[in-house]
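forwarding from the other thread:

> can someone predict this with fe (ii) ion?

sure thing
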Amino acid sequence: MPLASRYRAEPAFTHGQAAATGVLLCNLGTPDEPTPAAVRRYLREFLSDPRVVEIPRAVWLPLLHTVILPRRSSRSAAKYASIWTPEGSPLKVWTERQARLLQGWLGEAGHRVKVRYAMRYGNPSIASQLDALKAEGATRILVIMAYPQYSGTTTASVIDEVNAWAGGIRNVPELRFVRGYHDEPGYIEALASRIGGYWRQNGPPDHFLMSFHGVPQRTLHLGDPYHCECRKTARLLAGRLGLAEGDYTVSFQSRFGRAKWLEPYTEPTLRALAGKGLERVDVACPGFTSDCLETLEEIAQEGRDAFLTAGGKDFRYIPCLNAEPAWIRAFGEITARHLAGWPTQAAPDAQAQERTRQAAAALGATR
Ligand SMILES: C=CC1=C(C)c2cc3[nH]c(cc4nc(cc5[nH]c(cc1n2)c(C)c5CCC(=O)O)C(CCC(=O)O)=C4C)c(C)c3C=C
Ligand SMILES: [Fe+2]
Ligand SMILES: [Fe+2]
C-alpha cells in the first residue's frame, strides 16, 4: 500500500532540468462576471480573510453570511456591470496586460524569466499560478504586488497565501517578495509623467486631489505603515509635479462598515472643494496601479456626481498607470533589481526537452 503524503502531487523528476526563475505579479482580484452570484463568491472569499476584516470570527462570519453578502452582492454587481468591458473586468484586463508587458521588458533586458499574474481572491488563484510556474521548472519565484504601498490588509495577505501554498508542497522553490515600492523614483516618475502629460495636453486644474484606498484608522495606530507610505507617495509626487501645499489634497476612499477609516474621506473632500469655489478639480488614484471598480465607478462616476452636485463645474479623472510605458519600464527595473543575484536562465521548453530525449534515445539505440 503506498504511503499517504501530506503534500500535493508535484513534478517529481527535475534533476538535469535548467533551473528556471518565475515572477508572479499579484493583484487583489475581481469577480469572474458582473452578476450577483459571481460577486458573492468573490466577496465571500475576500471578506472572510482575517487580514482584511479583523473583527473576531465568531462575530464577523455570521454577520457576513446573513447580512453583508446578501445585501452587498447585488449592489456591487450593478456597479461592476457599469464598468465591465468586452474583455472582462478592467482590473483583470490591465493586470494581464501588465504581466505580458513586464515579460517583454524583462526579456529585452536579458532576463529569461517566466512572468505570470495571479489574484489574491478569485481567478487565476495564487496557488494555481505558483503550481504552473513550478510545473514550468521554476526553482526560484519572485512575488511582486500591484500595491505600491504596503498594508497588512493587502500585501501581507498575499504573503500569507504564497506561504500557505509552500506549506502544501514538498519541493519548495526559493521565494522572494517585493514588499512595496511607494517611494521608488521610477514609480513616482511614471505617475508624474502620466499626470504632467495630462496637464500639458488639457491644461492644469484649480486643485488636484490624490485619492488612496482607505483602511480602518485603527490599523495605523497598531503599526500598519500604509497611511505614512501613502502620504510619502503624495508628497514626492506633488514635489515632482511642482505643486505647492495649497494646490493639492490627499484623501482616502472606499470606506467599509461603521468604524473610523483613514481621513479625510474622498467624497466629503470633493464636496468641500466645490464649496470653496474651486471650479475645476482633477483626481488621480496613485495607490492603484491599474484602473478598477474603485477608480472607474467610485471616483470617475460617484466622485464626479458628488463634486458637480455640490456646485463644482469641471471634474476630471486622470486614469491609473495601467500600461503607461514609463510605468512598465519602472516596474521592469524594480523587478530586475529584486531578481539580482539569481541566475535568470531560460525556462525549460517542454518540446525541446522531448526532442533531446528522443535524440538521446536514438543515439543510445545506435550504440
Ligand atoms: C472590508 C475591508 C476592506 C479593506 C481593509 C480594503 C483594503 C484595500 N483594498 C484595496 C484595493 C482594492 N479594493 C477593491 C475592492 C473592494 N475593497 C473592499 C473592502 C476592503 N478593502 C471591497 C468590499 C471591495 C469590493 C467591491 C465592493 O463591493 O465595494 C478593489 C477593486 C477590485 C475590482 O474588482 O475592481 C481594489 C483594487 C487596497 C489597496 C486596500 C488597502 C490598502
Ligand atoms: Fe478594497
Ligand atoms: Fe468602492
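The two ends are 39 Å apart (CA to CA). thats all i got for now
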